[in-house]
């Protein structure tokens, strides 16, 4: 049959960070710093509700839907040992260590007062717990990159047009190393 699914995904993150200015020769423009970031995340999938969309054997839609979601969840759990309902996890994400640079250019123009450039290059270390323990949770999501190392890049430009107003653009990119790994969902009660 065909099934519809509804639910709510929520994620809350708090990032712990530290930054230290680096000593650089005066011939290099701008300020260099070394920074570290460690996110702590709370992820939740809740209110999961399954709906049968296929045509029933003469029953009206309302009659087929009464208790369908819980019956389906129970059936899938008994037959395949899978949990197709709500899921939640709290833990640390992936750590990032990066070299950051910023430089401010004072402008002598009437309209533009300052131009600020920033750039960053770093390494993402996969410190978040991997999903291996959640093999029976169909809606489990990783708190990080699930074991992949990465290289974060950042560039930004900010233009101050008034002492209380500025505008700019920021570009973030993350290159992830390829991590391919077979995932096996348990589909039978006696499957190991």
Task: Describe the overall structure.
With 192 residues, the protein is mainly beta. It contains two helices and seven strands; from the N terminus they run E-E-H-H-E-E-E-E-E. The chain has helices at 61-65, 68-80; strands spanning 3-21, 31-52, 87-92, 95-106, 114-125, 150-162, 165-176. Strands 1, 2, 3, 4, 5, 6 and 7 form a seven-stranded antiparallel sheet that branches. A hairpin with a 2-residue loop joins strand 6 (150-162) and strand 7. The longest helix is centred in the middle third of the chain and has 13 residues, at 68-80. The two termini are 27 Å apart. The model has no long low-confidence stretch (mean pLDDT 85).
Tags for this entry?
mainly beta; 192 residues
Fold topology:
Elements lengths: L2 E19 L9 E22 L8 H5 L2 H13 L6 E6 L2 E12 L7 E12 L24 E13 L2 E12 L16
Antiparallel strand pairs: 1-2, 2-3, 2-4, 4-5, 5-6, 6-7
Number of strands: 7
Which stretches are low in confidence, meaning pLDDT under 50 for 5 or more residues running? none
Average pLDDT over all residues: 85
Span from first to last CA? 27 Å
Principal-axes geometry comes out as elongated
In percent, how much strand structure appears in the residues? Answer: over 45%
* Element-level helix/strand string: EEHHEEEEE
Summarize the structure.
With 192 residues, this protein is mainly beta. It has helices spanning 61-65, 68-80; strands at residues 3-21, 31-52, 87-92, 95-106, 114-125, 150-162, 165-176.
């Amino acid at each position: 049959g065909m099934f519809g699914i509804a639910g709510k995904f929520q994620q809350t993150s708090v990032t712990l960070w530290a930054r230290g200015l680096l000593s650089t020769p005066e011939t290099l423009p701008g300020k260099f710093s070394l920074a570290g970031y460690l996110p702590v995340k709370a992820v939740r999938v809740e209110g999961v509700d399954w709906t049968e969309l296929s045509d029933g054997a003469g029953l009206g839609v309302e009659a087929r839907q009464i208790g369908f979601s819980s019956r389906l969840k129970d059936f899938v759990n008994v037959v395949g040992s899978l949990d197709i309902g709500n899921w939640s996890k709290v833990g640390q994400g992936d750590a990032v260590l990066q070299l950051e640079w910023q430089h401010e250019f004072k402008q002598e123009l009437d309209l533009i007062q300052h131009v600020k450039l920033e750039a960053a290059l770093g390494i993402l270390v996969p410190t978040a717990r991997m999903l291996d323990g959640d093999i029976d949770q169909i809606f489990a999501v990783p708190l990080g990159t699930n074991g992949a190392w990465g290289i974060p890049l950042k560039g930004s430009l900010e233009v101050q047009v008034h002492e209380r107003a500025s505008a700019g653009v920021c570009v973030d990119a993350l290159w992830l190393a390829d991590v391919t790994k077979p995932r096996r969902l348990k589909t039978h009660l006696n499957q190991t």
